[in-house]
């Protein structure tokens, strides 16, 4: 009869006693079907963190394989939804019922969407970094959705300075002419001499975290991305023809933004979405003028919620 295999976690006690906030694994790679509120199930390649607390000060350790196998079962037999995530965390605790009473999990993945260009309506893929985080504590689930959305921002100050230079170039060009016909002005405006300066723009990123209400069944990933892009008006593009590039330039010119403006736009939009009980926004403008970045942070202002 073969000898029984040793089980150090069960058969020995901690050399130094003490409770631990979280114990588990990070960077677990699993494929997962995500139930999103755009009425589709979408496969993603997720990197996962899975933890339980260790409330027994004498316990040697947790059973990490139990967490992994429960996660693997969800990956192969189910889909990631509000209900399945809550059940997964309950199962984490149940599998460690004598030593744990809290559980935590985080899924990081790129969420790919087909996005239509501005004028030509050509389509292309855009990948949005997404995080789904769940924490189960004292019978209550805290669920968070986070997404990074890239966009373009054009500096209002730079635009004003560029306009001034164009006005000065116009005065210098036509200083000796009392009357100028429309065709002459039209032709001049189409030259590099006419548009002597342009404002500086830069790629920017809105990092947004929202606390989801208990009424949410499927994850509103697309709704959140759409709300962010609609509020900012200048999301980066995928497939682009010349007419799309021209429209993108127009949108940048009509939506001049400091980082403060972008934060306030997002704050206003998210305040109108009751499915988000709380939110945290960080706007990053990766300056083309400076070697440093311009940053603004705002929250919903919920007592006991997100802090800046």
TrEMBL record:
Domain of life, per lineage: Bacteria
Pfam families named in the record: GCHY-1 (PF02649)
MF (Gene Ontology): GTP cyclohydrolase I activity
Single GO biological process annotation from the record: tetrahydrofolate biosynthetic process
Enzyme Commission number(s) from the entry: 3.5.4.16
Residues of the site described as May be catalytically important: 155
Stretches assigned to coiled coil: none
Keywords: Hydrolase
Pathway in which the depicted protein is active: Cofactor biosynthesis; 7,8-dihydroneopterin triphosphate biosynthesis; 7,8-dihydroneopterin triphosphate from GTP: step 1/1
Xref: InterPro entries: GTP_cyclohydrolase_FolE2, GTP_cyclohydrolase_FolE2/MptA
Reactions the enzyme catalyzes: GTP + H2O = 7,8-dihydroneopterin 3'-triphosphate + formate + H(+)
Known role: Converts GTP to 7,8-dihydroneopterin triphosphate.
Family note: Belongs to the GTP cyclohydrolase IV family.
Protein name (database record): GTP cyclohydrolase FolE2
């Amino acid at each position: 009869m073969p000898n029984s295999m040793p089980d150090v976690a069960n058969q020995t006690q901690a050399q130094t006693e003490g409770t631990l906030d979280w114990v588990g694994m990070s960077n677990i790679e699993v494929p997962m079907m995500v139930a999103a509120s755009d009425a589709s199930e979408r496969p993603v390649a997720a990197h996962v963190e899975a933890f339980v607390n260790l409330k027994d000060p004498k316990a040697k350790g947790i059973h990490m394989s139990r967490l992994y196998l429960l996660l693997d079962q969800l990956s192969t037999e189910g889909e990631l939804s509000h209900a399945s995530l809550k059940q997964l965390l309950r199962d984490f605790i149940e599998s460690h019922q004598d030593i744990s009473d809290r559980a935590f999990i985080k899924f990081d993945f790129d969420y790919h969407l087909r996005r239509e260009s501005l004028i030509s309506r050509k389509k292309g893929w855009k990948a949005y970094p997404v995080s789904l985080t769940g924490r189960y504590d004292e019978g209550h689930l805290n669920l968070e959705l986070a997404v990074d959305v890239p966009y373009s921002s054009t500096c209002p100050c730079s635009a004003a300075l560029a306009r001034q230079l164009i006005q000065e170039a116009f005065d210098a060009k036509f200083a000796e002419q009392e009357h100028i016909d429309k065709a002459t002005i039209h032709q001049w405006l189409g030259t590099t001499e006419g548009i002597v300066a342009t404002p500086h723009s830069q790629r920017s990123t809105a990092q947004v975290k929202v606390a989801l209400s208990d009424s949410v069944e499927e994850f509103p990933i697309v709704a959140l991305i759409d709300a962010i892009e609609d509020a900012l008006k200048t999301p980066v593009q995928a497939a682009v023809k010349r007419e799309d590039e021209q429209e993108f330039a127009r949108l940048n010119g009509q939506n001049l933004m400091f980082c403060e403006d972008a934060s306030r736009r997002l704050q206003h939009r998210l305040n109108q979405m009751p499915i988000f009980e709380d939110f945290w926004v960080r706007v990053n403008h990766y300056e083309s003028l400076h070697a440093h970045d311009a940053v603004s942070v705002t929250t919903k202002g919920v007592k006991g919620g997100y802090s800046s």
